[in-house]
Amino acid sequence: MAQVQVPPTSVSNQESPRRQSPRAFSGVLSLLVAFLWSLLGLLATISTIVALVMFFLKKDSYFAYVFIVSLVAAIVFTVIRLIVTSKIKCGLCHGTIVHAKNCRKHKYAQKWPLLSHRQTTLLQALFTGYFTCMFCGTPYRVGKKK
Ligand SMILES: [Zn+2]
Known about the structure:
The protein is mostly helical and 146 residues long. It has one domain. The chain has helices at residues 9-13, 28-58, 61-85, 117-127; strands spanning 23-25, 130-132, 139-142. It has a 3-stranded mixed β-sheet with strand order 1-3-2. It is elongated and about 60 Å long. The structure holds zinc ion (ZN). Zinc ion is lined by residues 90, 92-93, 95, 133, 135-136, 138. The site of zinc ion has 8 residues, from loops.
């Protein structure tokens, strides 16, 4: 009776995603662009809130103009960010890496305190060079394949 030989490669398929070696992710430029629009959107949102508070405190019409301009800028920057981030996809599950959806996140998806999954992924990718897909848990290393 012949025994079924299990090839050694099948062991690596059973590894948990955290122990997988990271896959290369070459879209560093698109991540930088997404980060830039996220940052601009955040600054415009802060400016909107500050202008609104200042308008009610000082009753100066200058802050009303600043509020309107900041609000329009925040909306425009957010729309641009949504368009940019919806095109950055995971090579494995085709999930949008830095564009959170209401789908259930993977158990290995990372989330820093006070930040969203999207913000955590973006900051991790740009400042540590590594990130995890929030939908399939696949670890990635930013940069071309070595
Ligand atoms: Zn994925």
